[in-house]
Amino acid sequence: MLNHLKKIEISNKKIRDNYQQHFSPEEKKIYKNLIKEFSDLSRAEHGNDQYMRAFYSASLNLLKTDPTIFSVLYRVLKKRDINHKHLANLFFRTIQFEKLFPTKDKDYPKKFINPKLWEKEIKLIIETKKNDIENVLIEKDTTTTIYQRYAGIKIILSSLLNEKSLNVADFGCGGNYGLPGIVSGMKFKKIIDNSDDSQLTKLLREKINIKHGLAVDKENPYLPASKKWRYTCSFYPNELGMLKHVIKMEQKLKKVKKIKFLQSDILELPKKKLFYKKHYYDTICISTVCYQMPEDQKKIITIARHMLKHDGILILQDFAENDKKDSDKLNFNISWFSKPFSYRTFVASEKTSWKIKEILKWNNGRCLEVQPGKDFKLLKAYLDK
Ligand SMILES: C[S@@+](CC[C@H](N)C(=O)[O-])C[C@H]1O[C@@H](n2cnc3c(N)ncnc32)[C@H](O)[C@@H]1O
After folding, report:
1. Least buried of 78, 105, 234, 289, by fewest C-beta within 10 Å?
2. CA of 383 to the centre of ligand 1 (A)
3. pLDDT, tens digit, for every residue of 144-188?
């Protein structure tokens, strides 16, 4: 089947123009899903980033007219377990990485406001670096790390666990900003708070006392290559000016010694006896990670339950909603951008019988506006007691 795609790729213009006609049923299905994903992304706001919209319009057009980009994405989907959303997201990061690092294009992003320019550039990159691009798409995950996302986690910590000195773990910590930032009292940006009496803003200002912190990620965030990839993932093109502030913040946070970093796959934790402590943590948070491993959510919850104290709380945060058929699960298959307030903060604990409860809803993954989620009353019960 892959040979068949290769033939289409190199065949004459007439065939290439209408290349979808020659698809197998499976290729047709994947093509349809990718077109839907890229077309959603070409219409999404991306925090008002016109470069991103132009990028996705260009990619969509290339998908429709040029078999090369489809065959690259198709091969990736055959070689790794990744959903279309994550892949489309990763595709932009892979191209942005090329522009920022190997090419070091001084005109990036300024020049790329126009889909036509993007089209030429994406084509050129794919043609000249097809193997590199494919390898990145096969091996990498997005490691976008945003301190502001830990606002949701801090709100839960302040409300449910106040006054105690806490043991906290952060699974999939990315650049490891969250716990070091909270421990050192680093401020969050002001949020538009749609709760009564700005309760959530007040919680955000509380001081949290962390006794022991563990941050886990399969990537070591302090290696130069991980940093480059993280910077590529963490910024929309129009946010790249913030990079110097983020580098400064990282230098500050690296000095916070209370949070221990462990390089490990979350699923491998049961093998790490020293770290797989039974009923040790008050809270485990997992922010913007599970969407990358949706099939493993139950395994992750089992690991977290082993490590949490009996009254401990698991905080999950993601572009997700409760699964309609299974209340122990989240559904990640919702449109990140076209459906507002789809970035959400959930909790699960013995008190909820490990059912996942939706506490907060954020306007997007930049977390500058918050609304009570459908199970907000759980948090309110603590606040009002
Ligand atoms: C999108 S980043 C989220 C970073 C941070 N938690 C945040 O919300 O800003 C996802 C992180 O999860 C990590 N990750 C994904 N799967 C993992 C796994 N199986 N074990 C450990 N880390 C994983 C990735 O390496 C990446 O750093």
Report:
1. 78
2. 31
3. 999 999 999 999 999 877 668 999 999 999 999 999 999 999 999
The predicted-structure confidence for 323-379, as pLDDT tens digits, reads as follows 999 988 999 988 776 678 999 999 999 999 999 999 999 999 999 999 999 999 998
Burial degree of 64 (CB within 10 A; 0-12, 13-18, 19+): middle
Write down which residue in 89, 109, 139 finishes a domain: 139
State which of 217, 219, 234 you would mutate to test the pocket of ligand 1, scoring each by most atoms of that ligand within 8 A of its C-beta: 217
Q: Determine contact, residues 17/45, Cβ cutoff 8 Å.
A: no
| Among protein residues, the one whose CA lies closest to atom 26 of ligand 1 | 143
Same domain, 159 and 123: no
Specify the CATH number for the domain of residue 374: 3.40.50
Residues 175, 133, 2, 78: what is their CA dihedral angle, to the nearest 10 degrees?
Answer: 0
pTM for the predicted model, two decimal places:
0.91
Instruction: Judge if 88 and 213 occupy the same domain.
Output: no
